[in-house]
Every structure is written in C-alpha cells, then in structure tokens.
Write a structure and sequence with these properties.
membrane, transmembrane helix, 127 residues, mainly alpha
C-alpha cells in the first residue's frame, strides 16, 4: 500500500506556477510604496479581520474563561469561609458563623439525646 502511494507521489507532476491556468488578478503582496494610505489601511484592516477569524478558537477561549473564573471563585470562597490566618479572628467571622449555622441546618440533622431509662437503684433491684 505504501509503495503504491510513494510511486504515485513520485509520478505526480510538480506544480508549475508559470503554466497555471488560474492566474491571479493581482500580485500579492502588493507594493505598499505605490498604494495610497487609504488603500493600505483597507488591506491591513482586511488582513487583520481574516487573521482574527482564522485563528479564533471559541471552545478554547470559553474553557479558559470558565476555568479562570472557577479558580478565582474557589480562592475567594476558601479565603472568606475556611482559611485561618491567626487566632485573633478575621473580619469574615460573622459570615463564617452564618455559613456554619446555615450548612448545619441544611445538611445536618439536629442531634437528639437518646432516651434514657431511669436507672434502677440498688433497693429496687433487691426486691
């Protein structure tokens, strides 16, 4: 299979620009010294727009934005709610107390003491 592909590639004629039936209308790149400022600006603007469209990666950009904001949010939430810097306390103590109460009410069930039977005294046991 690879031998056939190699033979075909070697036998294929090389592209010859001189005998190209589809000649370009203009030479590229143009000589910018001969163009007016207005035409230079138009060509530059067109090139920038096409380059921006060519190299746009919307999925990658979205992923990077989401991961950046997720990281920032995690660091802020961790710093406000959980990070202990010293024993003196922080300005976020009221927020931390509220969060602790709210999560305890949401995720925890209030602890109930198991019912205790009154212990039998030694006098009752002997009877």
């Amino acid at each position: 299979m690879f031998q056939t592909l190699m033979r075909r590639a070697a036998a294929a004629p090389k592209f010859d620009f001189a005998r190209n039936p589809y000649k370009s209308k203009r030479t590229w790149p143009p000589d910018f010294t001969k163009l007016s400022q207005k035409h230079q600006f138009r060509l530059e603007r067109r090139y920038r727009r096409r380059a921006k469209l060519k190299w746009a990666r919307p999925t990658w950009t979205k992923f990077v934005k989401l991961s950046t904001w997720a990281t920032i949010s995690f660091v802020v939430v961790y710093g406000v709610l959980f990070m202990e810097t010293d024993e003196r306390g922080t300005v976020f103590d009221t927020i931390r107390d509220y969060y602790a109460r709210a999560t305890k009410d949401m995720f925890g069930t209030p602890r109930r003491e198991p019912p205790t039977k009154p212990r039998a005294t030694s006098e009752e046991q002997s009877v």
